[in-house]
Amino acid sequence: MLVQLLNRLLLMLAVLLPTSTVFADQVLVAVASNFAKPMEEIATEFKKATGHSAELSFGASGKFVAQIENGAPFQVFLSADEKKPEKLTESGFAVPGTRFTYALGTLVLWSAKPGYVDDQGKVLADGDYKHLAIADPKLAPYGIAALDVLDHLGLTERVKPLLVLGENISQTQQFISTGNAELGFIALSQVIKDGKIGEGSGWIIPTDKYQPIRQDAVLLKNGANNPAALALLDFLESAKALAIIKSYGYGLAADKP
């Protein structure tokens, strides 16, 4: 009798409460550092639209792979490249057929000093800087892109002794912001404001000077049965999410031929 009464009470609560609250779930998301700002906005809109919440962790994509392979409970992975989600799929840690490009990264040569970096990046060859910050190419795709630019400009050997490596793109920006490096390569998303570089000075590097930074998302095995994980991946391709992504200077996969 008591059990029946409790069941009736639970049923009444289910009817009275909003559906999004009753069935709301949480998804644990590993997010590449360069995508921190847009993802925080997307997570807010995601909760408004679905009732689900996203718990975000930011860091280097390479470190996330190691953590996932060692049992970290992440359910969705937003990488800074396409290779790492592909690797996780091949090794059985991600769900086949769920990987897609959610953004195309844009690289910028940036300094915290106004007027220091010209809009053609000539400071790289002509400047008197002592330190040039890049994300560690072994961990972060933006570091690989930075090396592509230096190779393209024929400056790799010249600046190699000046390189300061950040563990991820956030630490790289910190090196520049604190003056430990006069300038460095970071993601445009970190410094963009109202469609242009908001502080300091920078050169938005033409995309023909580095290999495309295709940032892929993938559903991890831990999230295969989590409605919030599936909903988040769907939401990342919604008009609302795409508008946020574009506002931070990223390209979209649909923009490419």
Structural overview:
By secondary structure, this protein is α/β, with parallel strands linked by helices. The chain folds into two domains: 144 residues, 3-Layer(aba) Sandwich (D-Maltodextrin-Binding Protein, domain 2); 98 residues, D-Maltodextrin-Binding Protein, domain 2 (3-Layer(aba) Sandwich). Helix content is 39%, strand content 22%. It is built from eleven helices and twelve strands. The strands form three sheets. A five-stranded mixed sheet has the order 2-1-3-12-4, with helices on both faces. A five-stranded mixed sheet has the order 7-6-8-5-11. Strand 1, helix 3 and strand 2 form a beta-alpha-beta unit. Helix 3 runs antiparallel to helix 11. The termini are far apart.
Q: What is the CA-based Rg, rounded?
A: 21 Å
Biggest sheet, spatial arrangement of strands:
2-1-3-12-4
Order of helices and strands: HHEHEHEHEEHEHHEHEEEEEHH
Major sheet summary line: 5 strands, mixed
Instruction: Tell me the domain tally.
Output: 2
Put simply, the count of helices is 11
What multimeric state do the chains show? single chain
Q: Can you tell me the residue ranges where pLDDT is under 50 for at least 5 consecutive residues? A: 1-22
State the CATH architecture of the largest domain. 3-Layer(aba) Sandwich
Spatial gap, N to C terminus: 66 Å
The name CATH uses for the topology of the largest domain is D-Maltodextrin-Binding Protein, domain 2
| Class inferred from helices and paired strands | alpha/beta
Mean pLDDT, to the nearest integer, reads: 90
